Amino acid sequence: MNIDELKNKLETNGLGKYFDKLQPLLRNSIRLYQKVTDENEIGIGETKIGGRPDLPPTIAWVTETNTVVTKKRRFLIFKTKKQEVVTKPLSFIAQINLSEISQYDKENILPKTGLLYFFYSAEQEAWGDDYKDKDKFKVIYWNGHFDELSRTDFPSDLPEYSCYNSCSVIAKSELSLPSSEHDVYNDFSDEEIDILWEKVDYKGNMNKLLGCSDTIQSEMELKCELVTNGISVYYDPKRKVHEQNAKKWRLLLQIDSNEENGMMWGDCGRLYFWIKEDDLLNIDFDKSWLILQCY
Hints:
Elements: H1 3-12, H2 19-22, E1 27-36, E2 48-49, E3 54-55, E4 63-74, E5 78-89, E6 91-97, H3 98-101, E7 115-120, E8 137-142, E9 150-151, E10 167-176, H4 190-200, E11 208-209, H5 221-227, H6 239-243, E12 249-256, E13 270-276, H7 277-281, E14 289-293
Antiparallel strand pairs: 1-10, 1-11, 2-6, 2-10, 3-9, 4-5, 6-7, 7-8, 11-12, 12-13, 13-14
């Protein structure tokens, strides 16, 4: 949907009076329309969701490390504790060929070349509430010669339910409206809100890069800022200091639950990868953060 289409839809459905309020808040996004595709028909290094990643020799399949404490009873009274370090593979979510999608990046905010890889906890153990979960997801940027890439098999210890089906992707540039929790909708009546989401901006399955997030619960920018600074997402006296910085966070990638890939995030939820705009411009994807929301 472009700006003219949005304006026409608003007017057609009796919401034209809100166009001037919405326009400054619109953001360009890169919509990722997926199609179930045999992995052999997806070229090495092409944009894809699910399946197996195309990795260079310098990047191993991403893992998370956990310390597990077990207790053993001795002589009916005493217990001994044993610590064991357990390493588990993450699930591969998507790879984005930036040279393929750069033409849709209207803000010129993404790198023009290279690949972005996205991984997430195979057992969905990270919801974005605790900084201790920072190794349960990963965004990797790689920019090299594609002849170095090879399709990498799933690790033998990755659960089958976390080995997602492969989908090819068609990218399109689309405008996105502010999330449903934004204050701009305070003036809408309940009936107008229903019309907006059902007739003007019906989303359906929403996989995309950049733009406004399609929230299920609440806006996430402040949570990203607080958690990455070690501050409780609930009441904390330091919260006010960071509220202004929350505006610096940008949606990087949003991946929906979908039948095509066999992805189900919580209860029909979505994965949201976030990054601060300065870190994005500086190609510092290690500072990304992830939040899972579901119904």
